[in-house]
Structures are given as C-alpha cells and as structure tokens.
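=== RUN LOG ===
request id: a7f3
mode: sequence -> structure
chains: 1
length: 274
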Amino acid sequence: MMSSSSKEPEASDGLKTFGAVLKSFRKRAGQTQEELAPEVGCSSHFLSSVEQGRRFPPPGFVDRCEAALDAFGTLRLAANQLSRKPGLATWFRQWADMEKEAIALYTYECRLIPGLLQTPAYARTLFVNQLPPFSDEQIEEKLAARMERQRLLTERPNTAYSFILEEHLFLRRTGGHEVTRELIDHVLELAQRRNIEVLIMPVVRESHAGLHGPIRLLESPEHKWFAYAEGQECGQFISDPKVVSTLQMRYARMRAQALSFEDSMSLLKRMRGA
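=== RESULT ===
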C-alpha cells in the first residue's frame, strides 16, 4: 500500500501555509473535504493531504479550488509562494527534502546509475536521450539540479549511504566507453568514503531478492523509515510500515547476495581496465 498518511515527515512551511489557506476557504464555504473533493477532481484523502501540507497541488488543482471556493485569487497567490526546485520532478521534491535530513539512505538500482553517483557526462547522456526531448535550457537546468543534490554525499558525512548496483549498469556503457570509464572512477572514489557503501550485484545470480524492481529507503532523524517508488512518469512515497518492512527485508537479503565490498571494488577496477 502506498500512502501519504500521518506517518509521513513534516511538510515544508510553504506547503503548510497553502494547506492552511485552502482549509480556511473551504470552511468559509461551509464544505467538508468529502463535499469539495469531487468538485476539484480529487479524492477526499488527497485533499486532506494537501490541507495538511503533505502534497504539492497538481496542475489545475489550484484553479479548480479557486472557482469552487470563490477565493479571490488568494489560493493562486499562496501557490505561487511554494518552494520549487528547478530541475526536479514534482513527485520527487518531497523526497529530495527528506534526503537533506536523513541519517541513512539505501538505494538498489537495476535500471540506471542512481543520481547521487552520476557524473555530469553520464547524467547529460540520460537527459539528451530523454523522450520527449528536453530543450537545451531544460537539460542544463536538470543537470545543475542533479549536481547540486550530490553535495549531500560530502556535506553529510554522518549519513550512512548504501548502494546496491547491478553489474549490467556498467556493462551497458551508457554514453560510450570514456563516459563509463569516468563513471567507474567516480564510483570507486566515492566508495572510499567511510559513510558510503557500494555493492555490485553480479550478472549471474540464481537467487535475487530484488526482482520486483528498484528500492529506495530512508531513515529520518526521528528514526522512522520511509520508502520511495518511481515509475516512468510518476513517483510515490511509501509510509505504510508493513510495506517499508518488506522492502527493508529485501534490501537486507540483497546485501548478502551481492558481492562483498572488496570484491565489488575489485570487479569495478577490472571493468575499468577492460
């Protein structure tokens, strides 16, 4: 179950303010969440999450609320004050905020090298090959956002970072031989930091706990665990303890199934020299 429940982390001040303004106008109109939700094209649960400051209002939502509540443009003004992070997908922004305070971040990837480990050349290759195509301005914006996010690895030395990467991510040679070689060098360098663990899952592995797809796990300063799932054009926080526990169990099993840290580094060095 994927949800935005009361177990989610605290929202930003901007989102809280927008939510409070929305709630105020809803009550002024004498409507319940159950009554307003159908008018603005969402569920009462989603509307509740927005009012609590836990979800970004999607495109069109603010205009529909303005019309339904006769809010005199106040909701649009409040929405314009929301903190936006250029280059980051809407659904990823809250997770990116959580990363800044996390005391542990675990990532398993089978599709591409995680953003925190990418080189500029590798990231640019991904953006250039995006469909529909990005403009040059969009590519530079997204590249700048990705490089800015990577400062977490050096600015939060007390955060434990763990990455389990499939061997085939390097064998694919995304961007070409030189881009891959630079990427391997970069990963090897990062892995020398005491707080960064990089493990490689070999191509041949008869038993694999990660066949359901990528996993992202995060421990908050309050020692609560959350997960994040991302699809082709969407993303979702997972706060249900049962689901998070299942993902933790799978991640722990993969740690045992992957190559040891020493063997992982040895494999990357051999691949670099190939």
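=== NOTES ===
Residues 241-257 form the longest helix (17 residues).
The radius of gyration is 21 Å.
=== END ===
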